[in-house]
Specification:
Blueprint: H1 6-9, H2 19-30, E1 37-38, H3 39-46, H4 51-61, E2 70-71, H5 82-92, E3 96-97, E4 109-110, H6 112-115
Helix pairs in contact: 2-3, 2-4, 3-4
C-alpha cells in the first residue's frame, strides 16, 4: 500500500544486480576493444529504457566492465574520468579527434563515425539508429 511496489518489499541480496543492469553490462562486455556504443545505442539494442537509464546503470555498476566503451553520443570523454578513459582509448587504438586549441583542457573526443560499433562483427562505424536492429 501507499506506493510501495512488491519489489521494494523484497530485499535484494547485496551482490544481486537488477535484471536490466545485468543486460546493460552484458552488452558493454560485447563491445570490442577500440570501439564504442552510446548510452542510447545500448538502450536501442536492448529495446528497453533510454540513455539516462543506461547511464545510471553504468554509473552504479559499470566498474567491472569496460565502461570507457560506453560513451556520450557527442564523443566527449566522461567528465571526471577523462584521463583514465583516454589511456584506455589510446591503448586500444580507439579513433579519436584532436581537440581544437580553444577546447578546455585540449582533450580529444572520440571519432564517433569511425569508432561506433553497431553490434555486428564488421569493422565499419554506424550511423544513428543502426544498432536498433542488432541482436
Amino acid at each position: 500500500m501507499g506506493g510501495m511496489s512488491r519489489e521494494s518489499e523484497e530485499p535484494r541480496a547485496a551482490d544481486e544486480l537488477p535484471a536490466y543492469a545485468e543486460r546493460v553490462l552484458d552488452v558493454a562486455e560485447l563491445i570490442p576493444p577500440g570501439r564504442v556504443m552510446t548510452y542510447g545505442d545500448i538502450a536501442e539494442w536492448l529495446e528497453e529504457g533510454g540513455p539516462r537509464q543506461v547511464g545510471r546503470v553504468m554509473a552504479l555498476y559499470g566498474g567491472a566492465v569496460p565502461w570507457w566503451r560506453v560513451v556520450r553520443a557527442d564523443g566527449a570523454l566522461l567528465p571526471g574520468s577523462e584521463l583514465r578513459a583516454l589511456g584506455h582509448y589510446r591503448e586500444e587504438g580507439t579513433p579519436l579527434r584532436a581537440a581544437p586549441r580553444s577546447a578546455e583542457g585540449h582533450l580529444p573526443k572520440i571519432d564517433m563515425r569511425r569508432a561506433r560499433w553497431d553490434g555486428t562483427d564488421g569493422r565499419g562505424g554506424t550511423e544513428r539508429g543502426d544498432a536498433a536492429g542488432a541482436p
